[in-house]
């Protein structure tokens, strides 16, 4: 997000949400089961909140440790813990680890997490964020983690998907009312 005006991120966020809702409603690869797509009128989100855009200090792991993550529907999957983000959120010191699948050439970091909304306002299996570094991350760098971008994995919509569950080291002890809420459809 290159727009640095105070609400530029919010404009971009709202646009991203509209595009995602359209994809979920109409695309053949939508995770929303076909029988629910006609009634689907968009995901339920927390309101955008700048307090959930946090500055995090990076620690890069030069020799990443493998982490095996349980999945919702299938065998565990292995990731490498490539970085740790340390930040303050709601007055608490927090840490989230960022992962990359083994043998992946993708620069995007996978940041699965649970928080005190998990299983209540948000999907019981946790939520995900993706972090795309603008260059090579180095220990001591400061980056912005935006929990407004937190999303529910595809398995929140259908049991046919196998999704990694956030490991216990990524369970936050704070309430993070930002990003996507639990998908609601077909629960009549």
TrEMBL record:
<feature type="compositionally biased region" description="Basic and acidic residues">
    <location>
        <begin position="15"/>
        <end position="25"/>
    </location>
</feature>
<dbReference type="InterPro" id="IPR012467">
    <property type="entry name" value="DUF1684"/>
</dbReference>
<dbReference type="Pfam" id="PF07920">
    <property type="entry name" value="DUF1684"/>
</dbReference>
<protein>
    <submittedName>
        <fullName>DUF1684 domain-containing protein</fullName>
    </submittedName>
</protein>
<feature type="region of interest" description="Disordered">
    <location>
        <begin position="1"/>
        <end position="48"/>
    </location>
</feature>
């Amino acid at each position: 997000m290159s727009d640095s005006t105070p609400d530029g991120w919010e404009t971009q966020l709202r646009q991203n949400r509209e595009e995602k809702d359209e994809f979920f409603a109409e695309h053949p690869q939508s995770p929303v089961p076909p029988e629910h797509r006609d009634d689907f009128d968009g995901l339920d989100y927390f309101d955008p909140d700048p307090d959930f855009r946090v500055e995090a200090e990076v620690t890069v792991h030069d020799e990443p440790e493998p982490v095996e993550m349980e999945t919702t529907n299938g065998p565990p999957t292995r990731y490498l813990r490539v970085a740790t983000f340390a930040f303050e959120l709601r007055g608490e010191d927090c840490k989230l680890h960022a992962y990359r699948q083994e043998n992946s050439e993708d620069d995007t970091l996978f940041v699965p997490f649970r928080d005190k909304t998990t299983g209540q306002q948000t999907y019981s299996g946790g939520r995900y964020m993706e972090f795309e570094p603008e260059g090579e991350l180095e220990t001591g760098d400061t980056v912005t983690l935006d929990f407004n971008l937190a999303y529910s994995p595809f398995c929140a919509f259908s049991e046919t998907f196998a999704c990694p569950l956030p490991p216990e080291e990524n369970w936050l002890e704070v309430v993070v009312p930002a990003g996507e809420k639990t998908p609601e459809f077909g629960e009549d």
